[in-house]
Design a protein that fits this description.
Helix content: over 70%
Number of domains: 2
Order of helices and strands: HHHHHHHHHHHHHHHHHHH
Radius of gyration: 23 Å
Oligomer: single chain
Shape: globular
Number of strands: 0
Distance between the termini: 23 Å
Structural class: mainly alpha
């Protein structure tokens, strides 16, 4: 009897340790120091090892098509290392891609309690709200010292966390989706104070998203919100209620546009789609003067995408290698006389092109499966949160190489496997228990 109690107590301690390690990983995503995330990940791995049951976990991974796809993508990048010329960058690339292997194994094979997953998601959203408030307060002092209001925007807003605005905007958008999932689909089961605080958090995070001035995340989230409200209005027969909420949302954005025209200026500048590779002007920034001679967010990407396609045509099947993406892009820029891009060593700013340049069409096919197999499952399971999360990631991948930076790939790989388990009635995949 004492042995049985001891065994039960050990399993409980390990489960709790795994859960708190998940929380640690989720919150460490906001840390300016990668070492904090690494420590959290190591803690998670240790509790996974202590849990044992490796034969059972292996069966779960083999039964999980999404986990297999992620592991295959990692293997493709490892193979790409062996024919890369820049081995130093190759090592860095493999290190960055490690979450493709780690999280499918550690999270994908662990039989997680849905309540634990829900808490991890909720605490991530709460942490995002708190860290955003801290960043905003910190920037108030910076603006006072610098006497420059533009420090409230874009990368400046999250400088204290050493994050790029485009990635932090994805975190903020996902946090908004988590709170909305709570409000829209768990409204009757949460307390009044939770409802009020969730609504306040959504409004505040919408302000933060507007100040970040990350166009893709803003457009995708707004489209999701409007589509969701229309769908719920039609389904429930409350079209007028939905129209009022949409009008309120649009009104809020209009007010923010009047108060903070800097963000709107980033959209206005996109009117010029033409480009000249020989143009040496700097890219437009909302704090500077607006003129068509400068590069903007669209025409600069269009020019880089053309150069990326040039590289792919020369190495269509296997790519240039895991560590040679930037070198190959720079060479392509120089061939086109695109000296501005060559000097800045830009990546393709598109995950689909980035993967194809590095590891070829085989890598691209696996990447597409890593995106669209979970999306099809999300639609099949009618999981609003998983579906919107994937739409956010997929559309962001058109304008950013989000899996080529730690800020993007760790976020996606960590949360996709949590959401997969959370979304299916029961467990995902059908949990093997013996």
């Amino acid at each position: 009897m004492s042995k049985l109690f001891s065994l039960h107590n050990k399993e409980y301690i390990i489960q709790q340790g795994f859960f708190y390690s998940l929380l640690f990983v989720a919150i460490s995503i906001f840390s300016p120091k990668i070492i904090v995330f690494n420590i959290a990940t190591i803690a998670l791995f240790i509790f996974w090892v202590l849990d044992g049951k490796f034969k059972l976990k292996t069966k779960r991974i083999l039964n999980d098509p999404v986990a297999i796809l992620f592991i295959l993508l990692f293997i493709v990048y490892v193979i790409g290392f062996f024919y890369t010329e820049n081995t130093e960058e190759g090592f860095k690339s493999i290190e960055t891609k490690a979450p493709l292997l780690l999280f499918p194994i550690v999270i994908g094979s662990y039989n997680l309690n849905k309540d634990y997953i829900y808490k991890v998601l909720l605490y991530f959203a709460i942490a995002c709200t708190l860290f955003s408030a801290i960043a905003l307060l910190y920037q108030i002092n910076v603006v006072r010292e610098k006497q420059d209001f533009n420090y409230f925007f874009n990368d400046g807003l999250v400088a204290i966390m050493d994050k790029k605005a485009v990635y932090y905007a994805i975190y903020v958008s996902f946090s908004i989706l988590i709170f909305l999932n709570l409000i829209l689909y768990k409204f009757s089961s949460i307390s009044r104070i939770s409802k009020i605080l969730s609504i306040i958090a959504v409004v505040f995070l919408l302000l933060i998203l507007f100040l970040l001035a990350a166009r893709t995340s803003q457009v995708v989230l707004l489209s999701i919100l409007v589509t969701t409200l229309v769908g719920l209005g039609v389904k429930s027969g409350k079209i007028i209620h939905a129209a009022v909420l949409i009008t309120t949302l649009v009104g809020f954005i209009v007010v923010l546009s009047v108060l903070f025209p800097q963000t709107i200026s980033r959209f206005k500048n996109l009117r010029n789609l033409s480009y000249d590779f020989s143009n040496k002007e700097d890219i437009y920034h909302f704090s500077g003067a607006d003129n068509d001679a400068q590069w903007n967010g669209i025409n600069l990407r269009l020019a880089k995408w053309v150069c990326a396609v040039d590289v792919i045509r020369e190495n269509p099947v296997r790519g240039v290698g895991s560590g040679d993406v930037k070198d190959a892009m720079v060479a392509s820029y120089k061939k086109r006389g695109f000296l501005y891009a060559a000097e800045n060593k830009f990546d393709p700013h598109n995950q689909f092109l980035d993967t194809t340049v590095g590891v070829g069409l085989i890598g691209l096919i696996i990447l597409l499966l890593c995106y669209f197999v979970p999306l099809l499952l999300a639609i099949k399971w009618r999981s609003w949160l998983l579906t919107t999360f994937l739409l956010l990631i997929i559309f962001s991948s058109f304008t950013e190489s989000i899996l080529s930076r730690a800020q993007g790939i760790t976020f996606y790989c960590f949360f996709i496997f949590l959401l997969l388990q959370y979304s299916l009635p029961g467990k995902y995949p059908k949990r093997i228990t013996n």
